[in-house]
Write a structure and sequence with these properties.
The complex is a heterodimer.
Chain A lengths: L1 H9 L4 H20 L7 H26 L7 H17 L5 H24 L5 H19 L5 E2 L3 H5 L10 H29 L6 H23 L14 H19 L1 H11 L1 H6 L4 H27 L1 E2 L7 H11 L11 H20 L4 H25 L5
Antiparallel strand pairs in A: 1-2
Chain B lengths: L2 H6 L4 E10 L2 E11 L4 E5 L6 H9 L6 E6 L2 E3 L4 H6 L2 E4 L11 H5 L14 H15 L15 H14 L4 E5 L7 H16 L3 E5 L3 H7 L2 E6 L2 E7 L5 H10 L15
Parallel strand pairs in B: 3-8, 3-9, 6-7, 7-8
Antiparallel strand pairs in B: 1-2, 1-4, 4-5, 9-10
Helix pairs in contact in B: 5-6
The chains are: A mainly alpha, B alpha/beta.
């Protein structure tokens, strides 16, 4: 038994993430009881999942921005600007959606390069640069179409945002879920083989299997829930919504970047100790600039999902999103002082935020009270963060 | 030591007429120092005397304003830490230059990660290689996968020194390597310096600790207010004379300078 405890302690399990997961489950159960079983119904879970996707997509990369000791307050405004631009090009300009989306991507990257260069090359604090951007790009979003709402009518494009036709159906959902589970099992097996070859096997088999079981159960459970939701006038259940798939792909890609590439390692090193990063020869400016370009790419993806979901680009698109995104990152365990944070944490953080919001909406809590509560939850998360780091000796 | 032979050899490092100013302040003014293979040159001086700045220019952390750097007789331009590393120069900073949030393995390879054929991080190979290097320095160092902030001073120092060992430093800059260490670990660093010397590595040692300087260095160079006071064979001077140079900038009377091996 003490051997098992020892193995648990030595394993690289992030207990903080486990705790966040438990908080999310707790929130869901409480709301489920209070709402008389509505909260955990397939319909509500489906809506929460697709509503969280836009904030979730941007939060994954904002985690890295904060890890590198920067901040971006302009994400909501830039997303609004790019979103309206894409909708404008499609509706008023008559462009095809891929052409419009690529143009949006180019503009988003240009904006990110501009803000990133001011930060990385000139050393202007990103807080100031993006505070200006928060204002400027909201204005730019207005200027694109002179404040007029731009409808989005392309049927294929609309599916990217979820909604009525925006899910992949029962069969495809199960196939995909099965493939993901097999891939995760294979990854665990391959890692154990390689560890054995190098003689650095760390976890006992039962622990690796346990760690593998958690995501497998979540994936299968989530798929079952999505396949359990049928819109009344349709003849088949929905399956997994497309925006959730996009979000998952983004989160997996960014996790890969963080754990498996030099770029990801350098972002964390720069956040942990910027002086050391420079002294050991990390190209700090180039990495910072690349990070902002990555942000631009993901803002474009979020903008596409967002206008597809609303079926329109409006100049108010993404207003206030920066707060939700930063809150998701912080609730997910990203330290505002930099150097620590995780992509999976941001996924949990975004889900916690959205679950609280949706849950209170189900219970008819007024908008004013909801805002008060969500704001205080963010503060509670930061207080927890400070106490947790003090307790684990990370900060004195 | 065979001084005659060394005299003939080209110095490993030649810093000639180096200048560096920050704003209007002359941090380093017309300093020339030489280092030979298998030699330890101690750099001494008060805080702010310019010794760390001089070494940071060799390490690529600051560009030089004027003067020249020659490595094995060849004139080189060191514009970045990567340039310096490519010349076989490794630096152990007083601050250790560790990213506290990363583990010991990641820190050892920071900036020079081992990659798989798919250009992704080869974590397991780095892990295995790192354990070998750490074991050479400290047999009891096993918790190499926790953030280095959780390690002891000696273990952190081990990580910093391991960089120099793993990447085969030919020229080593050590800035106060024993400042954070206990007696046992200080002894270990002393042993290591002797071992590297025997392998022909040239070492610049910045230290405030007189027993270290007299125990480990072959020559010593004293700086004051950015200028070089003098360079002497360690065996030729005593502690009082060295302190006189550091504090007053006064050269000891009747002692010959040896700014290179042999003169």
């Amino acid at each position: 038994m003490s051997g098992a405890l020892q193995a648990l302690r030595q394993s690289a399990i992030d207990w903080r993430l486990v705790l966040m997961g438990a908080v999310l489950v707790g929130i869901a159960l409480v709301f489920n009881v209070l709402s008389g079983g509505i909260f955990l119904s397939p319909e509500n879970l489906y809506n929460i999942a697709q509503q969280t996707a836009v904030v979730g997509i941007v939060a994954t990369v904002v985690v890295l921005i904060i890890v590198a000791r920067h901040i971006d307050l302009s994400v909501g405004s830039v997303m609004g600007f790019v979103g309206v631009l894409i909708a404008f090009l499609m509706y008023t300009g008559g462009w095809s959606w891929p052409a419009a989306a690529l143009a949006g991507l180019a503009v988003a990257i240009a904006v990110s390069m501009y803000q990133g260069a001011l930060t990385a090359v000139l050393g202007v604090p990103s807080f100031v640069v993006t505070l200006g951007g928060l204002m400027s790009f909201r204005g730019a979003a207005f200027l694109v179409a002179d404040g007029k709402t731009q409808p989005v009518n392309d049927e294929f494009f609309q599916r990217l945002g979820g909604g009525y036709d925006g899910a992949i159906g029962v069969t495809a959902s199960w196939v995909l879920a099965g493939l993901v589970c097999v891939a995760m099992a294979a990854a665990t097996l391959l890692r154990r083989q390689r560890q054995q070859r190098f003689g650095v096997l760390s976890n006992p088999l039962w622990l690796d299997l346990g760690v593998l079981a958690v995501p497998v159960v979540i994936v299968l459970g989530f798929t079952a829930a999505m396949n359990g939701y049928q819109i009344p006038n349709k003849d088949a259940p929905q399956g997994i919504p497309i925006p959730v798939l996009i979000w998952a792909a983004v989160a997996i890609t960014l996790s890969f970047i963080v754990h498996r590439t030099r770029f990801g390692r350098y972002v964390f090193a720069m956040g942990g100790n910027p002086d050391a990063a420079a002294l050991v020869g990390i190209p700090v400016r180039r990495v910072t600039l690349m990070l902002f370009v990555l942000l631009g790419v993901l803002i474009t993806i979020a903008a596409v999902v967002s206008i597809a979901r609303l079926n329109a680009g409006t100049n108010s698109l993404g207003t206030g999103m920066e707060l939700y995104v930063i809150a998701a990152a912080v609730i997910g365990g990203t330290a505002l002082a930099g150097g620590s944070g995780s992509i999976l944490g941001s996924v949990l953080g975004a889900l916690i935020m959205q679950s609280l919001d949706s849950g209170m909406l189900l219970l008819d809590v007024s908008i004013g009270k909801r805002m008060v509560i969500i704001g205080q939850v963010l503060i509670a998360a930061v207080v927890f963060d400070v106490l947790y780091r003090r307790w684990t000796g990370e900060r004195s | 030591m065979d001084w005659g032979k060394k005299l003939m050899a080209e110095p490993l490092v030649a810093l000639r007429g180096i200048h560096k100013a920050f704003g209007g302040v002359h941090a380093v003014e017309d300093v020339s120092v030489y280092l030979h293979p298998g030699e330890v040159v101690a750099l001494l001086g008060h805080n702010g005397a310019g010794k760390s700045t001089l070494m940071k220019m060799l390490a690529g952390a600051y560009p030089i304003d004027s003067g020249e750097i020659r490595i094995r007789g060849e004139k080189v331009q060191i514009r970045s830490p990567a340039d310096s590393q490519a010349l076989g120069i490794e630096t152990i900073y007083q601050t250790l230059a560790l990213a506290d949030n990363l583990d010991a393995v990641a820190n050892l390879f920071l900036g020079r990660e081992l990659l798989t054929p798919w250009r992704t991080l080869d974590d397991l190979r780095m892990d295995a290689e790192a354990r070998k290097v750490f074991a050479r320095l400290n047999k009891n160092f096993k918790n190499v996968r926790v953030p280095v902030r959780r390690l002891s001073g000696g273990q952190r120092q081990t990580v910093a020194i391991s960089r120099a060992l793993y990447f085969n430093a030919r020229i080593l800059i050590m800035d106060e390597p024993c400042a954070a260490l206990g007696p046992e670990e200080t002894r270990m660093v002393g042993e290591l310096i002797k071992q590297l010397k025997a392998e022909g590595v040239g070492i610049f040692l910045i230290s405030h600790d007189m027993p270290d300087v007299f125990g480990l260095s072959d020559r010593l160079a004293v700086m004051k207010n950015g200028k070089l006071v003098g360079t002497y064979r360690t065996a030729d001077v005593n502690e009082d004379e060295v302190l006189g140079m550091i504090i007053l900038g006064k050269r000891p009377e009747g002692k010959a300078q040896f700014d290179r091996v042999g003169g």
